Amino acid sequence: MYDVPRVALCAALLSTLLASTSVFAQPAGSGTIPLDEITVAGAASPGAGSGDTAGSVTVPSVARQRAAVNATVGSVAFIDAGEFQNRYANTLRDVLKDTPGVFVQERYGQEMRLSIRGSGIARGFHLRGIELLQDGIPLNLADGSGDFYQIDPLALRSVEVYKGGNALTFGATTLGGAVNFVTPTAHTAFAPNILRIDGGSFDTIRENFQFSRISGPADFLINGTFTNSDGYRAHETQRTQNLNANIGYRLVPGVETRFFIGSYVTDQKLPGTLTLFNALNNPRLANPTAIGGNQSRQVETQRIANRTSFLLDVGKLDIDTWAIHKSLYHPIFQVIDQDGWTYGIAPRWAGTFDVGGHRNDTILGLRAFAGQNAARQFVNVAGQRGAQTLDALQSASNYEAYGENRFWFLPDLALMTGAKLFSSNRTYSNKGGFPANPTVQFGNVTYEGINPKLGLLWQPLPDIQVFGDVTRSRDVPDFSDLAQSNLLRTTFVPLEAQRAWTYEAGTRGRIDRLSWDVTVYRSEVRDELINFSINPGLNIPAATFNAPHTLHQGIEAAVSLEVARDLTGVGDTLGLTQIWTHNDFRFVCDPVFGNNRIAGIPDDVLRTVLTYAHPSGFYVSPSVDWVPRGAFADHASTLRVPGYALLNVQTGIDFRNGVSLFVDARNLTDERYVSDVSVVTNAATAGGPAALAAFYPGNGRSVFAGVRASF
């Protein structure tokens, strides 16, 4: 599977990377200090303390994490976990819904659509076009696919969102970018011990614990969450068990190693999609096919990773290694039974030095990761394996070298240059011998290229930045795209890689009571990987094709204003936040769809949050989620779902002894709405809204409450 010349190339590049740290052993210049306190994310729990200390060599303090994100020349976001600790944060929507430019919508349980700038826009399941990382180490499988079941919101300390090509800092250059979920260590935890229990609607109960200690050069932290919920809809029961732990050890001053260990078990029943009428009038129903086939997703994942960090004369070298084992039992139209491993290594050096008296910031990195997945399918007999229909092996390997440089040619103006070279191989072997797949099939395709980046960052004041950049992205198809299934057989389809040029300009900053983060962007995409469902009601994985030319453009904006201070004369505050994501995604002169909108994501998503905070620790925060017009359900633009508005209220109190109480009430008007769609090519020819079962109803009125003790 491994190509020896490529391995030699990676070794040579690593040697160059290590040598560079001694070449630039000069004192750092006095360039502009990046922002470290700006945030416009919605209603933070005012009493949630930072719990931040100096951090450690492998995982820096939260303040340094924020500063590193805000030094990026491009659109990024930083979320302190204190902002969602005191609400019912069960899914990634609860974590990311206050981030402009990120569209995240629940389908059921923990299954959702996550898209940044239209990445994987019509993907009817899981994830494409965004790289997920935990503590800077990839979570995606080697073919680029990913899901959300490993991410436990109660096991996070911060979240870093790098939109589009701005994720080059990790070596990611997909259209959507990357999201890095940073877990706490004993040095950065909110408290040494945390106990929490919450629950509420839909017979939901969740328990969480966290325990950490520091002993001389060693430290450790363990976090566990157990969730049980019957769900809003019939046949939506969810049972999850998540365990995250890390152990760090300072080998000598300036050298530290840390192991990250995780175990994640999910058993999720699938309610399927409904017709538009039932989604709006009988939203708690399940699709009869989902019940008859006892459709579910049972996932067991184990992860071990290591970061060993070296503080050098100039900069820091991190060497990451990881291995992920994933087992999937997934009865849908057939029983999908998969088992696979992903493993990799990624050295990365970052440092600051002088060039001709000017400050220069450099990042250099390599990534080599691969994996194999045994993919079997069986006839679905009420959720059990029937006759086998597929026995295939999916193999993926990736070799990447990347670099990014910020040169401060003026004290407040930096030129950013960067590039990534990559080679990605996908090999598929279908052993055949079954009635549905009688013949052997073999597919092998390699994707190679270079993705450059160029940008400018102007920082006229310490708390204000203006930026503009141009980036190149490439999205390599994963095996859900390449190995396409229908009721008859599975076929390997050698698709082209999706590629795009993205232009963006924006500003972020703070002036007294006002803070903002606004970006406009335009992506000109070639061979976009577009999905459409063959039969959403049967839960058949979507087919994928390359659209010759498409356009993604939009606005990502968040503005926060502290409306009043000392409202009643005791130091209380009243703040208002407005978040707006505008999406304009369309085909361009397509031979089939002309200039139609690409279906799946609404044009505008708005969120308004008003927060009152009292110095006693009490807070109340009403919010409105508003989608003026729903998304199109088909690429032919014949059917659009209705818009909606949801009213929510969060309130709670943080006591000085470390005990917190909260109530999180959602959709108080019990609005009936469609939260997501399973996209088809033409709704009119698929039976129209009366017969097309392609819609996921949103959750009705719900109330959750909890108590957390930190000590």
Automatic annotation (TrEMBL):
Kindly list the places in or outside the cell where this protein is found, as annotated in its UniProt entry: Cell outer membrane
Using the record, list the residue span of the signal peptide; answer none if the entry has no such feature.
Answer: 1-25
Motif TonB C-terminal box, per the record, lies over 694-711
Q: Which family does it belong to?
A: Belongs to the TonB-dependent receptor family.
The alphabetized list of GO BP terms reads: siderophore transmembrane transport
**Protein's UniProt name:** TonB-dependent receptor
Q: Where is the TonB-dependent receptor plug domain?
A: 71-178
An annotated Gene Ontology molecular function: siderophore uptake transmembrane transporter activity
In its UniProt entry, the species of origin is given as: Methylobacterium oryzihabitans
Pfam families per record? Plug (PF07715), TonB_dep_Rec_b-barrel (PF00593)
Per the record, GO CC terms? cell outer membrane
* All copies of domain TonB-dependent receptor-like beta-barrel, residue ranges: 202-668
Q: Per its UniProt entry, which superkingdom is the organism in?
A: Bacteria
Q: Which UniProt keywords apply?
A: Cell outer membrane, Membrane, Receptor, Signal, TonB box, Transmembrane, Transmembrane beta strand, Transport
Q: How does it sit in the membrane?
A: Multi-pass membrane protein
Q: Per its UniProt record, what InterPro entries does this chain match? A: Beta-barrel_TonB, Beta-barrel_TonB_sf, Plug_dom, Plug_dom_sf, TonB-dep_rcpt-like, TonB_rcpt_CS
Which Gene3D superfamilies does the entry mention?
Answer: TonB-dependent receptor, beta-barrel domain, TonB-dependent receptor, plug domain
